[in-house]
Every structure is written in C-alpha cells, then in structure tokens.
Design brief:
Oligomer: homodimer
Number of helices of chain A: 9
Helix content of chain A: 25-40%
Largest interface: A-B, 104 and 105 residues
Shape of chain A: globular
Radius of gyration of chain A: 22 Å
Strand content of chain A: 25-35%
C-alpha cells in the first residue's frame, strides 16, 4: 500500500511538471533556503520546487536525484518546476540553464559530488533530532594544522560539547568522523548537523559527552608550484598551505592510489597527536573511536583493523561491514575491540546500492560478529538511500552507544 | 604615471574581451578556486578570467565591480572572458547566462550583496598578512545562542587565540567585530580572514591576544509561522531558531527601522552576557572594544557612543567618523574613551564613495579628535575602495593598537 501511494505521488508530481494543477499546492520554503529567499520549496509529497529568473533562456532544468526535470517559463521569464518525490532529508542538486550546470542562486551551498553546489533539505518526520534548539550549545571549531605527512597545512573541524569549557580539567574521549567520496570535512558539520545531533542527545542525557574530529579524507601530495603573476606574490606561496578563508580545497575521490596508507599516516602521525595536544582528550585506544560514511567507512575499517593500538570502537555507515574473518585474521584487533556499529539506508539494502560493501549480507555478517562475542550493532535507516538522512540517523544511533 | 599605467592596462584587458592576444597571458587560478577547479583566474594586470560550459547559451557575461563583460564562446560551447583590472583583494561577482544571474560553478561562495554568491580573491602585494601559515593556530568557533530580544536562536563566530586553551585560567579582552550591509556573520571569518590575520600578528608579537566575536548585524523579529506540509513537522518549528547547518540566514540590509536599538539591545542584553559566561573574558568596558565595516561601523558608533559603560575602544572601517562634537555631546563617552580608529580605502576618499560618512573630511575630523586629547588613529588603505582588502588591512592595523 505504501508502495502504491509512493507510485501515485510520483505520478502526481511528474504530471505536475506539465500541469501545476495536479501537484499538491502546499509548498513551503525548504528549511535551508538563503536569507530572504523563498525557494527551493518542498510540498507534503516531498516534491522539490525551484524557481529561477532566466528571461532569454531556451531551456531550464532541475537536476536532482539523477533525474532532470523540465521547468516551465512564464510571461515574465520566470522558470518554475518540480521534481518527483524525494526521500526525507538532504539532497544535492543543480540547475541546467541552456546546457550550463550551475548552482541554484537561491539555495545554500554544500561540498559534495566533488564541487560546492546546491542542496535542499526535505523536512523529515524525525527532523527534530538534528534541529537547532535552545539547549546547552557545544561549539564547532575550525582548526588548521601542519601535516608532516602531507607537507601542507590541513584543515578540520572539532566539535566540543557544551560542558567542555565549563570543566577546565576534565578529559574526554574522541570520535574521528569521516565524510564520503566527493565530499570533504565540511560534510559532517553542514549536511550532517553533527553539533545539533550531539547537543540534542546530550541535553536529553542519551549520550556521554565526547569530542568529535572531522577531517578531510583525502591525502594530497604538496601541489607543484604554479607560474606566478609578476605583480604579486605567487599564489603557490599559499598553495602548500590550506587555501585562504573558510573553504579549504576538499579532497573527494581525487586521491593517490595509496590513499589508504596516506590517510592512516596522516591520522596517526599528524592529526591525532595534534588533537591530543590541543584538546583535553583521554589519549588512549580505549577512549578513541573512528567512524565514517561510504568511502569514510572503508577508511575506518582499513585504519581501525590495522591499528588496534589507536582505536577500539568503530562505525561504518553505508560503507561495508566488519566480518568474523576480520577478527579471526587480526587477533590484536579482536582482543581490544569494544564496539562495532554498521548501518545502511533501507533502500541500499533493497537495491544493493553503491557503498553496500563486499556483496555479503551486512546484517548477517554483523549478527555473526555479535554471535562471536563482539558488541556489534546493525542499524537500518527507514526509507532512505545512500544519502545524508541515513548518516544523520546513523550518527544519532551510534553516538548513544559510544564510550559507555 | 601610475594612473596612466592603470588606464593602459584597462584598455588592454577590455581589448582582451574581443581579442585574447591583447590580454597578458599569465593567468593563474585565483587563491580561492574550488578543489580541482582552474577558474576563476587572475593575471599580473589583475584582470579576472572566468570559464563556463554553456553550449546552448546565446549570451554569457561576467558581472564584477558593477560592470558586465561579454564572454566568448568556442566551438565546444565553452565560454571564456576577462574583466578590466580589479583592485587587489576580494571581489563579489556572478555570471549572467541568457539573462539568469547565477553563481560561477567553479568559484567558492560567500555571503554578500544579500546573497550567497561567487567571490574571487585578486592576489595582493601584501597578501602574506592574511595567508594561512604554519604558526600557532587560533580557533574559529561557531556558536548558537538564545536571544530574548529576538526571541530566536542566533548564530555567531568567536575567534580564540592559540594560547587560549593552553592558559586555562587566563582571561582575555574582547573585540566585537561587525560586517557590512548585505553581509552577515560569515563575512569576517571568510572574506576577512580574521583568524589568519590575528594568528600571524600574534606569531610576530605585533598584537596582544584577545577574543573576537563576529555576530550578525541584523535584528530580526521572530518570523511568522508558515503553513506546514502535512507529511512532516512544520518547518517553522525551526524557523524561530537558527536554520539548520552551518549557514544560518544572514541579515544584510533587511532590518526594521529601529534596527539600531534592536542591535544595541541584542548585544547588551543577550550577546555580551553569553560571551562573558561561555568564555574567559575580562568583563568590563576597559577590556571591551567594538568595530565594524560600513554599516557595521555606523552600528559601532551608535552603540559605543551611547554605551560607554560597555565599550571603551572602537574602530570604524569605511563607515563614518567620530568627531570632537561626539565627545563634547557625550561627556561620559569622552571620559572613558581609550582608543578611536578610523579607516577608509584610498579610492573612497578620492571618490566620496558610499560609507564615506556624513560628508565631513574624516581625516580632519580624526586629527581634530586627536588634537583634543583622544588616542585617535586614521588609516588609509592604498589603492582600494569600499571592499574587503580595505577592511582586512584596517583590522591588521587596528588589532596592533588594541588593548595596549
């Protein structure tokens, strides 16, 4: 029945593209429109409506969820149109104006799909858990640090719980939380609402306070020097360092073949010592966890299995599993392992979507791991795919289990 | 002579729009392009070159510095073109594709001109002072707080110097630093490179360490409730709070007629008490300063003159002046005033540009103030207008004078 309703709604929305009368007219601005802007909008069927002024354009499309939807032009040269129903939560999208893929000028911008571009948040029934609320507020701190491994300044975000500054001698466990391919360290603070999820959990006493470090999942060799304008210092004078401003160059999928070693070295030789020196951490494996989504989940598995002296708990969100063989083949990892959390969006399990892992059944693998004596947990995000709502929910669940 | 060179360069660049041969071909990617992107570029004449793929477009323009430059289309549908020489430093811009004003898909995005849009940084001879360098790093902290005055969650950034976390009992003075009209609290952290300017000054021993608070200059009444989609909790359940994610809705110019009172109340009743409770501040007027650019400078003057019990030092960047009459008419302000800093871009003084103030000569006014016994300073940013390079330099100068 639910499936039937979805099909009917899809038909309605798509029909709406050619005849607005047929789309449910209860659109409201998405929660993440720009200040003073009214679009993108979402209706109760979770169709996304965009609007753009392009008087001389021949064709304008909304490109979301891998589908391009034609917009309609009115007499004033304003283009408007809707998508089919989207899953609850966050979706990257773009506009196509006469063949040019461009951001929607009225949306907010996020780093994903290997570029800064538009994103729309479809209100979710459970959105309260990541809403900004009047509860004790933690801080999302932006940090630059020198990496010997990368021979460059790197950039990360560090979440500290509200009580951190009020307990100047207390030390905290640390979760290292990684983004997915084509994304960067802005993903968890922005699309993921990490600070809001943790502040709300802590306000309800559902989690113990810990620090969260969100770094870039790419390992970059120092860039070659570029030719410099004569009139000014060479830009490459800043290239080996993080680019200026709040938006350092992200990594995404563009990384060397040996990225796994590169990231492991970056974490173990540069990032973790920096965090343990600048923050009041409990600097041992028992109080250190790593988790990540998709590519970040694969990094989490490769690093935590190889470095039981550094990490004792891990979470893999839409990025594979930990198997009984992983523990059999790595006795020291098995000996010190405290917590394993594996999650997927329900549509990933239905569709065997990318990020599903090695083809085995992750639920069975996790159950087997649990049966072998490991504190293993499997979570499925209902009605979502390989997308941020699955990962917001995964963090919400995982954070309640960590460092107990 | 300098003027002649500028004119000649302008001619060269504009000629370059129709014949590339005539523009100096030493373009390199701007310091703030997106990861892996090669545009926008800048050459040694400070012309900005953009590139966008728009195969079916009839017309594509680069809109920068109030001028629209036609781009050229090649056989593959790639449009490319250059602007006339720009001042050193940061400039907002956009593309116009068949009548649609859109962000450049390969630039980074900044909040200004009352929207998130493209920005390009033209390398400056003095750009080293705001570069990310391997020096002790402060932190740029993102904070949400409840405002009784606004009946809403508000959002600000707080810079803490590198030594802050290493001296758990030391208390620090605070500078409240405001953005301009059409901008928001992201302006100083992003376009302004506040953290880099302070980290570099402190590393060179040119400033005393202090906290910097960057809040939103708008005062907003709680928004009316919007109709809600049936299928999900009403978005307005989050509207009275800051929007989700890292990009709360900025204020810009859209503010009530009584914004001055609104901002003063927000600062004095909500923001300053919150900062004094969450950070190790020296909570008295002698250790509290306010500064701002353009509209933020006007806010700084109105608030500091009216509240000598709260602030004792102030900076006005391209936003007017403090006159001898201001001190004569406000004896308590005059009695406690410790430092006045007034600055403009040289082109503003030449052109009497917006933000110049009340029509009087700010240099003469500041000299008169100094002659009257006030520790007053006047600074002119060479070769820049009402733009961020003027304000980066103003902060760099002002920070060296503060809290001495």
């Amino acid at each position: 029945m639910k499936r039937l309703i979805t099909i009917l709604t899809t038909v309605l929305c798509i029909a709406g593209i050619s005849a607005t009368a047929q789309v449910k007219e209860d659109f409201v601005p998405a929660p993440n429109v720009q200040a003073g802007k009214q679009y993108p909008q979402v209706n109760s069927e979770r169709c996304v409506r965009v609007r753009v002024v392009a008087p001389e354009a021949k064709s304008v499309k909304l490109d979301i969820g891998g589908v391009k939807y034609d917009l309609r032009k009115d007499a004033e040269g304003v283009w408007i149109g809707e998508s089919a129903p989207q899953d609850e939560g966050f979706h990257y999208y773009q506009l196509n104006i006469d063949g040019a893929d461009v951001p929607d000028p009225s949306s907010l911008y996020y780093y994903g799909a290997s570029r800064w571009g538009s994103g729309v948040d479809v209100p979710a029934a459970d959105q309260d858990f990541y809403a900004v609320k009047n509860v004790p507020q933690g801080q999302m701190r932006e940090i630059y640090y020198w990496s010997e491994v990368n021979q460059a300044m790197r950039h990360c975000f560090v979440y500290t719980p509200a009580e951190y500054d009020l307990n100047p001698t207390k030390r905290y466990p640390v979760l290292y939380l990684q983004h997915g391919g084509g994304e960067d360290e802005h993903g968890w603070p922005q699309q993921g609402h990490t600070a809001q999820i943790m502040d709300n959990l802590l306000a309800e006493g559902k989690a113990v306070p810990f620090i969260i470090v969100m770094d870039n999942g790419s390992w970059t060799m120092p860039r070659p020097a570029a030719p410099a304008p004569a009139a000014a210092p060479a830009p490459q004078a800043q290239r080996p360092q993080a680019p200026q401003g709040q938006r350092p160059q992200g990594g995404g999928f563009a990384m060397p073949a040996n990225w796994a070693d590169g990231i492991a070295n970056t974490f173990i030789k540069d990032l973790i010592p920096m965090i343990d020196s600048r923050f009041r951490t409990i600097p041992d494996a028992a109080h250190r966890a790593m988790a990540g989504l998709s590519m970040g989940g694969m990094q989490t598995k490769s690093i935590t299995v190889a470095h039981p002296e550094v990490f004792s708990s891990l979470g893999i969100f839409s990025g594979g599993t930990i198997t009984v063989d992983d523990t059999k083949n790595n006795p020291e990892f098995a000996r010190t392992l405290k917590l394993v959390f594996v999650s997927f969006g329900s549509r990933e399990l239905e569709n065997r979507a990318p990020g599903f892992g090695d083809g085995t059944d992750p639920r069975e693998e996790t159950e087997a791991l649990k049966a072998s004596g490991v504190d293993a947990h499997f979570y499925v995000s209902p009605g979502t795919a390989h997308e941020w709502q699955s990962w917001r929910r995964a963090l919400y669940q995982f954070a309640q289990l960590l460092f107990r």
